[in-house]
Write a structure and sequence with these properties.
38% strand; seven-stranded mixed beta sheet; single chain; alpha/beta; 255 residues
């Protein structure tokens, strides 16, 4: 078996670790319900990656803006939008620069799939929430989804998956293993595929394992009122000891 190790979320391998048909099937109906009918303000996909959700919502009639700190991700997202013939504005922007780069007055901002945790530190997460709030119009909505890290801390080993995707006719099988060290989670994504024998590619990186209590405090600091907390995309109530996901829906307060 050949083995390759490189940095976490390598753009050229990002889509190979995700079953996009299943993921979009979970996410898009809930996002449409939360944000309501397309409005003039538009939506921001914060940490948009390769732009799959951004383009899917553009096809639903929303004015979409995608932002990601990786210029490679943005290049791939722009190519996808062109391929799908949808009008999306993609920008290279870290969370800390969003209001300067994108401006304000948006109807909604969403940040999915641990993209907020990928900010990497308490300071960076708090800054991101402040930027999301500034980009929203009063009454605009914020949708956040990360893993529920609290029960994962005591799992040994802590593994998520397998996830299966098919890209260009080839099947890829991925798992993620999490190792917790105080205020960080080191996550290793391992992808297997068969091409004249089994091959393996591993990506490693760091997440900040934020909790609901932190989100509650930091959203309040940013002028965001939390309306709902769910444990999955079926909108079941969040249970700290059992839920797989931590999903927060918030509204920017007036003033």
């Amino acid at each position: 078996m050949s083995v390759v190790r490189d940095t976490f979320l390598d753009p050229s391998w990002y889509d190979k670790g995700i079953n996009w048909a299943a993921r979009l099937g979970r996410e898009i109906p809930v996002l449409v319900d939360v944000f309501g009918a397309p409005g003039d303000g538009g939506l921001i996909d914060a940490g948009c990656g390769t732009g799959r959700q951004t383009c899917a919502l553009a096809k639903q009639g929303y004015r979409m803006v995608g932002a990601d700190a990786s210029d490679e991700m943005i290049a791939m997202a722009s190519s996808l939008a062109k391929e799908l013939a949808v009008d999306v504005a993609f920008h290279v922007s870290p969370y800390a620069g969003m209001i300067e780069k994108l401006g304000g007055g948006f109807d909604g901002v969403y940040c999915l799939g641990n993209a907020l945790a990928a900010a990497g530190s308490e300071e960076a997460v708090r800054e991101a929430l402040g930027q999301f709030a500034k980009c929203l119009r009063p009454g605009g909505r914020l949708f956040l989804q990360v893993l529920n890290f609290e029960p994962m801390r005591i799992e040994l080993p802590c593994v998520r998956g397998p996830r299966v995707s098919v890209v260009d006719g080839r099947e890829y099988i991925s798992t993620r293993q999490f190792h917790f060290h105080d205020d960080r989670a080191v996550v290793t994504n391992t992808t297997l595929w068969h091409d004249e024998g089994w091959k393996q590619r591993s990506h490693a990186g760091r997440l900040y394992p934020l909790s609901l209590s932190q989100l509650q405090a930091w959203c309040a600091d940013a002028g965001l009122r939390i309306d709902d907390t769910w444990g999955n995309y079926q909108r079941e109530p969040f249970e700290i000891d059992r839920s797989v996901d931590l999903i927060v829906v918030a509204t920017r307060m007036v003033g």
